[in-house]
Amino acid sequence: MRTIEHVVSRHHPAFVVPALHLGLGRDDKVYLVLGGRQDGQALRLASDGSAQWFGRVGYAALAITATADGVIATAETHFPHRIDFWDREFNPLGSIDDFTANDTDGYYAPSAVEATPSGWFYAIDQHRRQVVRLKPGAVDKRITLTGLDPDATSKKGPVGLRVAEGLGLLYTAWPTTAGAGLVSVAKLDGEQVRSIPVCGRRASPSAATTWTTTAGSMSPPGGRRNRNGGR
Predict the structure, then answer these.
(1) I need a labelling partner for 167 at 20 to 30 A (CA). Which of 185, 192, 197, 217 fits?
(2) Domain ranges (residues) in the chain
(3) Is the pLDDT of residue 201 over 50?
(4) For every residue of the chain, which 3-state class applies, written as one string?
(5) For 23-50, what is the mean pLDDT?
(6) Class of domain 19-222
């Protein structure tokens, strides 16, 4: 006797679970987002999967996060090239679209947005090699990443971003011209601290999350060294 099991999702068919992008909010909520042909879909839920709240966002949404008071930001690439802001119920709070996207540089920006304890968001404008500090209705400053490895490229895919305001550090994960990847760490003024090759493989938008910081150093989980000798 054979048994066939078919798992039926409770969500809309357009909400393709394997293609979701994960974001963690400062409000202790888990966020999932997925772009779509007409619009994108987002889901906020508690860490145990309860208290789910669905919202519609931009069609090219690639990343999502939220501040401690529940202001949500999504990073939308392609033609919109903007950071959208939303309240807890996914009502729009405006957007900032001064990010580079064109046929020459590519259409991957902004591919990442991070919320910080200060209440500010940081977004990557990788084609300009900048990180933007912003919130609804305001751009505080643009941080140029100086001394970035020349092999880092923004034309071969999304670039990842993580921010450690307490340590004064910015982490970015880049594809490289050689088809591999690297994780870069810089100060909050954009000055490069060090660059770590990612084991001969292309860096993903979430690659920066696999590294931990200790007093300004950078090491992978468990302190393992990569084949290039970095931590």
Answers:
(1) 197
(2) 19-222
(3) no
(4) CCCCCCCCCCCCCCCCHHHCEEEECCCCCEEEEECCCCCEEEEEECCCCCCCEEEEECCCEEEEEECCCCCEEEEECCCCCEEEEECCCCCEEEEECCCCCECCCECCCCCCEEECCCCCEEEEEHHHCEEEEEECCEEEEEEECECCCCCECCCCCCCEEEEECCCCEEEEEEEECCCCEEEEEEECCCEEEEEEECCCCCCCCCHHHHCEEECCEEECHHHCCCCCCCC
(5) 91
(6) mainly beta
